[in-house]
Amino acid sequence: MSIDTDTAARVARLARIRVAQDDLPALASEFNAILGFIEQLNEVDVEGVEPMVSVTPQRLKRRDDVVTDGDRQAQILANAPDAREGFFAVPKVVE
């Protein structure tokens, strides 16, 4: 598949990118280079290759999902400049 200047102009318009008429041939050339690279990637045999998350195999650190800091409302609200009825009080923003 080859991209011409009309198609490049259409893609630019759809992407809401202003491209000068003189720059359209260069943009079409870049699109063609990208499509050529994608065609090269499609030629690679990936049968039996597992997807990777990282280039180095690593296991994510995990911890037990338990509540450890519960029942500390008074200590937390002690740092607030203004607290009412167990909540942080903030100035009214919307009328």
TrEMBL record:
Keyword Ligase set for record: yes
Enzyme Commission numbers on file: 6.3.5.-
Record's keyword terms, sorted: ATP-binding, Ligase, Nucleotide-binding, Protein biosynthesis, Transferase
Catalytic activity: L-glutamyl-tRNA(Gln) + L-glutamine + ATP + H2O = L-glutaminyl-tRNA(Gln) + L-glutamate + ADP + phosphate + H(+); L-aspartyl-tRNA(Asn) + L-glutamine + ATP + H2O = L-asparaginyl-tRNA(Asn) + L-glutamate + ADP + phosphate + 2 H(+)
InterPro entries noted in UniProt: Asp/Glu-ADT_sf_sub_c, GatC
MF term (GO), any: ATP binding
Annotated SUPFAM superfamilies: Glu-tRNAGln amidotransferase C subunit
GO biological process, one term: glutaminyl-tRNAGln biosynthesis via transamidation
PANTHER family, alphabetized: GLUTAMYL-TRNA(GLN) AMIDOTRANSFERASE SUBUNIT C, MITOCHONDRIAL
Assembly and interaction partners: Heterotrimer of A, B and C subunits.
Function field: Allows the formation of correctly charged Asn-tRNA(Asn) or Gln-tRNA(Gln) through the transamidation of misacylated Asp-tRNA(Asn) or Glu-tRNA(Gln) in organisms which lack either or both of asparaginyl-tRNA or glutaminyl-tRNA synthetases. The reaction takes place in the presence of glutamine and ATP through an activated phospho-Asp-tRNA(Asn) or phospho-Glu-tRNA(Gln).
Protein name: Aspartyl/glutamyl-tRNA(Asn/Gln) amidotransferase subunit C
Gene that encodes the chain: gatC
